Amino acid sequence: RFILNFVTDDRWKYITDGLKVTLEVTFLAVLIGILLGLFVAIVRSTYDKTHKLKILNFICNIYITVIRGTPVVVQLLIIYFVVFASMDVSKVFVAVMAFGMNSGAYVAEIFRSGIMSIDQGQFEAGRSLGFNYAQTMVHIIMPQAFKNVLPALGNEFIVLLKETSVAGYIALQDLTKGGDIIRSRTYDAFMPLIAVALIYLVMVMIFTKLVALLERRLRNSDH
Ligand code: ARG
Which of 65, 73, 102 should be mutated for ligand 1, with most atoms under 8 A from CB? Predict the structure, then answer.
């Protein structure tokens, strides 16, 4: 009967609309996270290797410490109720900012470990080819580092996709909230929540497959 109701009335809209919001927030947050993470990782690695960018490095360290040291839900609430309290911005925007900034700190460490995974000899090879520091980074280190961190980046995407399920804390109607609204209105908890779980599972499985394909492509290009 639930299935019948589900297709005949429009409660499935909570699921589809929620799914759209979840995907939108996740993709935009991943984008911000990668850009932010890349920037922070480069600043920190550059400081490690050359002792330049001291002040920027200091700021980046504070950023990573604060973001990783506090729960993402608290960050989301602070951004919503404190930072943007007096501004008229959409909840999707707030969520993208919160999750993007949160992810950036983790991605920064992923990229930094990727850069550190490259043998020092690769830097020296670049420099002896006449590349300057930036050129060595862009043309020699980064392409190899990226390949090494791909599994960790895929992992971060999965974490982020599922982490957006706490967006309901600011009453953003994402996939999880959509399922929960159906639960609260129909008094049926099983079907909507299991449906929500299955949708996350399928999304993660599809994404995992895509990353595996990309990994194989990059590995083949090694030979
Ligand atoms: N749930 C953890 C928290 O509240 C993890 C946050 C997100 N993790 C991530 N790798 N982006 O802080």
Answer: 102
